[in-house]
From TrEMBL:
Protein name: Putative aliphatic sulfonates transport permease protein SsuC
Chief localization: membrane
Gene name as annotated: ssuC_1
Matching InterPro entries: MetI-like, MetI-like_sf
Family per similarity comment: Belongs to the binding-protein-dependent transport system permease family.
GO annotation, cellular component aspect: plasma membrane
Organism: Andreesenia angusta
Transmembrane segments: 62-84, 96-120, 126-145, 176-202, 222-243
Keyword Cell membrane among record annotations: yes
């Protein structure tokens, strides 16, 4: 009975935390602790979300396209670089510090330069998403490749296995859990990165919509966009977990959110 009660508490704890957060938010807005035009109540945000849903859906289509294009390129590039760094020690020594340094540069500082170089079309948005998704994919895959069982590798070497055979049968399977861990981070970064890049210029997208409603002081609509971005990110992370479960049915415990 105690164990069942504890299980119920564990399952409900995240919903209780969200409910408490919403209650504090509602109290702050209702009592005027924070002016309503700066912090609209949760009810106002939901109302704005429903009334603006057609526009939000239309703009989210553009943002998602930018996020998916950038994520696809980021995954492909990260995979290639991780394999090269694992295979060639000189390549690892030369480029790993550069890879880390690129992550110390704030994304907001890079975005204006990309707009200047590439214009106001989709290209700078996709480029920024590639930059923010490339690192977690590369580092995750590299850690996974390096975690391969050294005894198994030595055994295959003794059996005259080729580099491709060692990669296919030992290194690649060992890197899959690390890849999905990096992918979960990358999918959420991809949407946020696309929105940030749209703040600096463009014609469509959730970031452009946020700038427009900010100029009219419609903060409830801005919060509606934040709500939508959070929902999209959570949905994509859940899809990654489903994909991981399909690819790794033996790792049931790790697949839990």
């Amino acid at each position: 009975m105690t164990r069942k009660f504890q299980s119920i508490i564990d399952s409900a704890s995240k919903y209780i935390a969200i409910a408490l957060l919403l209650a504090v938010w509602q109290v702050l807005s209702y009592t005027g602790t924070v002016p309503e035009h700066m912090l609209p109540s949760p009810g106002d945000v939901i109302s704005a979300f429903i009334s603006e849903l057609p526009l939000l859906v239309e703009n989210s289509r553009i943002t998602l396209l930018e996020a998916f294009y950038g994520l696809g390129v980021g995954v492909a590039l990260g995979f290639a670089v991780a394999v090269l760094m694992d295979r060639y020690r000189a390549f690892y020594k030369a480029f790993y510090p550069v890879l880390v340094i690129t992550q110390t540069v704030p994304t907001v500082a890079i975005a204006p330069l990309l707009v200047l170089w590439m214009g106001y079309g989709m290209a700078p948005k996709v480029a920024l998403v590639v930059i923010v998704t490339f690192f977690p994919i590369t580092v995750g895959l590299l850690d996974g490749l390096k975690s391969a069982d050294s005894d198994a590798i030595e055994l295959l070497k003794a059996m005259n296995a080729t580099d491709w055979q060692m990669f296919r049968h030992i290194k690649l399977p060992s890197s899959i859990p690390y890849f999905f861990a990096g992918l979960r981070i990358a999918v959420s970064y991809s949407v946020v990165g696309a929105v940030i890049s749209e703040w600096l210029g463009g014609f469509e997208g959730l970031g452009v919509y946020m700038i427009r409603v900010k100029k009219s002081y419609s903060f409830d609509k801005m919060f509606a966009v934040i709500l939508l971005v959070s929902c999209i990110s959570l949905l994509l992370m859940k899809l990654v977990s489903v994909l991981k479960k399909a690819c790794m049915p033996w790792a049931k415990e790790e697949n839990k959110l």
